[in-house]
Every structure is written in C-alpha cells, then in structure tokens.
Amino acid sequence: MSTTRHLVNRRRRLATVATAPRTDSAPVQEPQPGAAAGPEADAGPGAPDAGTAAEAPEPTNKAADGSAAAGEPAGDERPRSRLLRLRVRLPAVLCAATVLLGASAAWAFTSAAALRDDPTRQNTALTDISRTSEVKGQITEAVGAVFSYTYASPGKADLAAQKYLTGKAVQQHKDMLAEVRAQAPKQKQVLTTTVTESGVELLDGDRARLLVFADQRNTRTGKAEETTYAAAMFAVDAVRRGDTWRIAAIDTFTR
C-alpha cells in the first residue's frame, strides 16, 4: 500500500516538472529509484498529500477571539491596570482631604476663640437695659457722695467712702481729697459734686466701666464767701457686690 502511494506521488511530481516552463538550462535530475523523495517519502500511511499540505491556512496575528493582537494586553488587563492606578491615587486624595479638614477645624476653633475673647461680644451694655440702668444710677449716686465734702460733718464723707468704694479706689479717693480735707476747717469749705452725664462703656456680668461728667462747686464760707465752679471728666471701674455696685478704680486720664 505504501509502495503504490509512493509511485503515485512520484508520477505527480514528474508531471509537474514536465509541464512547468524551464527558466534555466540546468538539466532536471531525476530522482533515483529507492532514494528518499523528501518529507513525503518518509510519511506514513496517514500523512497528508503535498497538495493538502500546501493548502494549510497561514497563521494570523490575531488572537483566537479576534479581539487583539498577540502583543497587546488582553481585555481583562486594562480594567486591572486602571484599578491599580486608582489604588495608587486614592491614598493621596485621602491625605489631601485630611489636611484640608484639619486646616478647616483649626480655623474654626481659632475664630470661635477670638469671638469669645472679643470684648464687644461680652459687652451687654446695649442689650441688658435693666442692668445698664441699675449700674448707671448707683454709680451716679456713689460719685456724688464720695466727691462731696463739708467741713461741718467730715464723717459723712468717710461713711460714703466705706459704702461705695472698694479695692484701689479707696486709696485713690484719699489722695484726691487730701488737700480739701486739709484746708476745709480753716476756710470753712464745702465741696459739692453733681453728675451731669454718665454712660456705661462696658458691662460684663458683675463688672462695668463708666464714663462720668460732673460739675463741682467749691464754696468758702469764711470771712469772705467765695464760690468757684469746675467741670470734671473721669472714668470709673465698678464691681457688683450683692445688690450694690461699688467703685473699684478711678481713672482721671492723667499720666
């Protein structure tokens, strides 16, 4: 069976050589009997014919699914690469967001602290009308009492000082009226202080600061009666003790 197939293949080749045009003068060498005729001669019974082998399909550059060339990444590799880039970028985005949130929190905390420390936010002089009226009335009375003096009853001024003064205002008051106390018995002097206007500059709980305008009349009732007038402007710091506002400091705006 194999010899017959060999003869058939040999005849086909001879027929092809005989009919093909010759392009050179070299003689055609006829294969010797019994010599190997090429790969076809060694083929077994199940080997394909030469013509059948020539018709084998040529390999293509495309993959079996026809979607991409052999050098390109598979379709499932592209989403994987995008996912990898997303994983790399996500920590940086989260870090930037954390920094922004921290800066915002610090700014909010600083702004809130500034608002709490701002005196204008704590000043209720314009909103607490009843407390403003209370401190204004009591300090007006206190200023008139402690800055008035009569030679006939010096103890009255001392009682007023004990009632309306506290803190460093006690010593300030003594220094301010020292000259009046010294001259009053000789000149029979009477000092009267009347508050003409006052305003609450600051009111914060039990603390207040007021600006006071006052007229002072100084009368000497000795041999020749003489009266002088003067205007005064000063500020007082007041504190509340129980139901009474007291003068804690006196500011005459002098250096």
In short:
The chain has 255 residues and is α+β, with helices and mostly antiparallel strands. The protein has 8 helices and 5 strands; from the N terminus they run αααααβαααββββ. Helix content is 45%, strand content 22%.
Question: How would you sum up this structure, described in words?
Answer:
With 255 residues, the protein is an alpha+beta fold. Among the domains are: 2-20 and 28-54, no CATH class; 129-251, Nuclear Transport Factor 2, Chain: A, CATH 3.10.450. The protein is 45% helix and 22% strand. The chain contains eight helices and five strands, in the order H-H-H-H-H-E-H-H-H-E-E-E-E. It has helices spanning 2-19, 50-54, 77-117, 119-122, 129-146, 154-164, 169-176, 178-187; strands spanning 149-150, 189-204, 207-220, 226-241, 244-251. A hairpin with a 5-residue loop joins strand 3 (207-220) and strand 4. The longest helix is centred in the middle third of the chain and has 41 residues, at 77-117. The termini are far apart.
Largest beta-sheet details: 5 strands, antiparallel
Globally, the shape reads: rod-shaped
Here the CATH topology of one domain equals: Nuclear Transport Factor 2, Chain: A
Radius of gyration, whole Å = 60 Å
Q: What CATH first level of one domain would be assigned?
A: Alpha Beta
- Regarding quaternary structure, how should these chains be classified? single chain
Structural class by sheet pairing and helices: alpha+beta
Can you lay out the helices and strands and say which pair or pack?
Layout: H1 2-19, H2 50-54, H3 77-117, H4 119-122, H5 129-146, E1 149-150, H6 154-164, H7 169-176, H8 178-187, E2 189-204, E3 207-220, E4 226-241, E5 244-251
Helix pairs in contact: 5-6
